[in-house]
Amino acid sequence: MLDKIAVRFVDALIDHAEVNLPxxxxxxxVVPEIGNSEIRELIYRGYxxxxxxxxxxxxxxxxxxxxxxxxxxxxxxxxx
Length: 80
Prior knowledge:
Elements: H1 2-20, E1 29-30, E2 39-44, E3 47-54, E4 57-65
Antiparallel strand pairs: 1-2, 2-3, 3-4
């Protein structure tokens, strides 16, 4: 039962990103603790979807609870 709920939540989170980001990739705010305009976030139901804009490519870097801060070692090997 919990597995199905988790799968539905992840599917909804991905759908949220896919619907909102392609048309306007800069719609997410710059991640405050990073301060790099290429590293942005969307919030979905209390979770932070951290993504990187690389030209025409949007790369989802990580997703985690909104109460946490992004650590450099959590983001693509710290290559920000």
